[in-house]
Structures are given as structure tokens and as C-alpha cells.
Write a structure and sequence with these properties.
Length: 407
């Protein structure tokens, strides 16, 4: 996901449980730093025994985007703890070093270098795009294996200007262009729509990226885009754009926006008589309660995970944190950690020394050629280290999102 505070206002995840590792707040208060210095020292002595493998988990646990970071870190921590409970990796326990980058790119780099000084051998993170890009740049000197659960910008794993793939960086989530393409294919191939309109917020990478790729793919499939309308950040009246769309008689409207705005758009569309089905991306996660059952009839959106599709994960999350998983970022954090452990297993099987250059390269090589049986789907990685997997297509039944199918 893009580093945008307005992305989605999810329910806050439960506080991060750190019994399995070390919690450090980078750039926090002096009292926080003092309280964690002893823990960091203890971690160093533990690692010296050779019985543990240090794994970093980084995210914004405080600040404006902490709802994302807490969810990812909780999901990742849950998986790593489950591995330990089953005996670890070849008998070695995973030591989880968790740091709070507070949603700030500079703090993220500081946290990352501290983790490297403490001897991590792989990293789960970062969470939002801007801090992730900063860590990616820093990670090149270390060749540190890292898997982001949720940063969707193409530039996280691939520099298009120089045609450079960051070989050490992977992601568990799909990219923004991927969502637009998937929904165009679904609209044309599965739903049979041949005429579509688009309404999106201009000036926002997420919204524009999905809209552009939907348009290009829908037309490539043979469909016709009858209208493209945009609005600005802060707008609350969309009737002018919706009236123009109504006059072009589309069969569907692609609305790649966030759920608060989508709710307003659906309501205003109904008020002017625009009642064709709407489609969206993962920004619709949380739409229930913001639109009526009638407005949600025959709508579809794509997501990484559908609630109820893995009850083992959902039950384990509730048992660990005392509440249901808060949003789709927790399953992605779980799968990002699973991907890291997949690579670690290969390095351990090769008998390499944790945190050594050969070890880290072995982790990278294993992930690159591996197949991850995750809870958001089974996936491999393409030439840009993006996951190749099916997408959950959700629709609404009685106002609640349910899985329609994997596509």
C-alpha cells in the first residue's frame, strides 16, 4: 500500500506481543530507549550461544499509520512464534527483534541499521511504501533478505528507470497495477461487461494507478471505456461526475478509492439514478456500514484475504491477541514471515552460519525459486520479486463482504 494516512482507517490491532523477542522504539523517548538498551544487550548474549536465529520485524507501531504496522507485526509475530512452538528451524529458535519506525522513513533506516548491528539474518518489513523504499536502499549494502507484507509500489522491488531488480527484496501483497488489471479481467471475462466508466481521486498514486491499469486492460480485452471522471482530495460532492457517467450509459463503474469516499459515491450515485454495479480494489476493505445493502448489490472488489478462508489462522490470532484479526494486513504479515522462514530453512539445511553473507544469499535464492503455501494463497515470485497468486474476489451479502471466488 502507498504511504498515505487516508488509505483506510482500520480498527486498531491488538498491542504487539513481544514475549518471543525484543521490542525497540527507534527515535522514541529517552525513557523508552533506556528501557530497551538492556533488552538489546540481552539479545546479543542470547544470539552468541548459536541456538537462535535473529529475525527483524519492523513497522509503525505508533503514529498515524500504526493501524497498519500493528496488524502486520502481530501477524508476522504470530507465525514466528508458532514456528518456535513447533521446535524452531532445525532445532534453533527464532529470536524476534521488533522495532517501531513510527511511520517515518529516517526512523525506519535507523531501526534497520540497529537490527543489522544486533545480527539479524532477515527482515519482515517495512509496512508502508515510503519507509520501505528507504530501507530497501539501505539494505543493498547488507544484501539483507527482506519481505514486505504490504508495500505495493512497484519501485519497492524494481527500479524501472534503470531496469534494476532489487534481488534481496520481496513482497507478500499484490501491486497496485496488478489490482487494476485483475478487476478489468474479472469485469470483462467473468461478469461479461463490455462498457465501463471510471471515477477516481486524482493526484493519488494508489487511485490513479488502479484506474490507469483498469482502463488499459479493459480496452485490451476488447471492452470500451465510455468515461473517465476524477475528483480532488477533500471533495465530498461527486454528483457532477456521476451525472456525466450516467449520461454515457456504462454497464459498470470502476471506483478504485477508499471506503469512506466509496460510501459517499455509492449514495450519491443512487440519488441521481446511477444504479449500475460498481467495482473496486482493496481500498474497499471496511466499506460495510458506509453503504446500504441496495447500494452494495452486485458490487465486487479484490483483496488479498477473505475473512473465513483460513479459520486456523483466525482462531490462532484471537487466542494470541484476545481479539479477531483487525484487517487484511495481519494475514499478509503472517505470509511475509512464512516467506522469510522458507528461506531460512534452506540456509539452515545448507549448514551455513546465520547472518553471514552466504547465509543471507541462500535465504534470497530459496525465496526466489520457492513456492509459498500461504494463507493469502499459494504463490511463487515473478522476475520483479512480486508474488504470482490468485486474488480473492469479494461481494456483499446482507451488507457484509463474502468471498465470491478466487480469480
Amino acid at each position: 500500500m502507498k504511504n498515505m494516512i487516508s488509505r483506510r482507517s482500520f480498527l486498531a490491532a491488538a498491542g504487539v506481543v513481544t514475549a518471543a523477542g525484543v521490542l525497540t522504539a527507534c527515535g522514541g523517548s529517552s525513557s523508552t530507549a533506556a528501557s530497551t538498551s538492556t533488552a538489546a544487550s540481552a539479545a546479543g548474549s542470547t544470539a552468541a550461544s548459536g541456538d537462535t536465529i535473529k529475525v527483524g520485524v519492523i513497522g509503525p507501531l505508533t503514529g498515524d499509520v500504526s493501524v497498519y504496522g500493528q496488524a502486520v507485526v502481530n501477524g508476522a509475530t504470530l507465525y514466528l512464534k508458532q514456528v518456535n512452538e513447533k521446535g524452531g528451524v532445525n532445532g534453533k529458535q527464532l529470536e524476534i527483534i521488533t522495532m517501531d519506525e513510527q511511520g517515518d522513513a529516517t526512523q525506519a533506516v535507523t531501526c534497520f541499521t540497529k537490527m543489522c548491528d544486533q545480527g539479524i539474518t532477515a527482515l519482515v518489513g517495512d509496512v508502508t511504501t515510503t519507509p520501505t523504499l528507504a530501507v530497501v536502499a539501505e539494505s543493498q549494502d547488507y544484501n539483507m533478505p527482506m519481505v514486505t507484507a504490504s508495500a505495493t509500489a512497484e519501485a519497492v522491488t524494481y527500479d524501472a528507470e534503470t531496469d534494476t531488480v532489487y534481488e534481496n527484496v520481496f513482497r507478500a501483497t499484490f501491486t497496485d497495477p496488478f489490482q487494476g488489471i485483475k478487476m478489468a479481467d474479472y469485469a470483462y471475462q467473468k461478469l461479461g461487461y463490455t462498457k465501463a466508466a471510471v471515477i477516481f481521486k486524482k493526484g493519488a498514486d494508489y487511485n490513479e494507478g488502479l484506474a490507469e491499469n483498469f482502463v488499459n486492460e479493459f480496452e485490451a480485452q476488447g471492452g470500451t471505456i465510455v468515461d473517465q471522471e476524477s475528483y480532488s482530495d477533500g471533495d465530498v460532492d461527486y454528483k457532477t461526475q456521476l451525472t456525466t457517467i450516467l449520461g454515457k450509459a456504462p454497464e459498470t463503474v470502476f471506483c478504485p478509492n477508499y471506503y469512506q469516499e466509496v460510501g459517499q459515491i455509492l449514495s450519491q450515485a443512487e440519488s441521481i439514478g446511477l444504479t449500475v454495479p460498481f467495482l473496486g480494489g482493496d481500498g474497499w476493505d471496511g466499506l460495510e456500514g458506509y453503504a446500504s445493502n441496495d447500494q452494495l448489490t452486485d458490487t465486487y472488489f479484490c483483496a488479498n484475504y477473505a475473512k473465513g478462508s483460513n479459520t486456523d489462522f483466525e482462531d490462532a490470532y484471537k487466542a494470541e491477541y484476545g481479539e479477531e484479526y483487525p484487517n487484511g494486513f495481519s494475514p499478509l504479515g503472517y505470509d511475509a514471515a512464512m516467506t522469510i522462514v522458507y528461506g531460512i530453512q534452506a540456509a539452515e539445511d545448507a549448514g551455513l552460519e546465520a547472518a553471514s553473507d552466504d547465509y543471507k544469499q541462500a535465504v534470497i535464492d530459496a525465496i526466489k525459486g520457492g513456492t509459498i503455501n500461504g494463507i493469502t494463497g499459494t504463490f511463487t515470485f515473478d522476475e520483479h520479486n512480486n508474488p504470482v497468486k490468485q486474488t480473492a474476489i469479494l461481494t456483499y451479502v446482507d451488507g457484509k463482504p463474502v468471498l465470491k471466488e478466487m480469480f
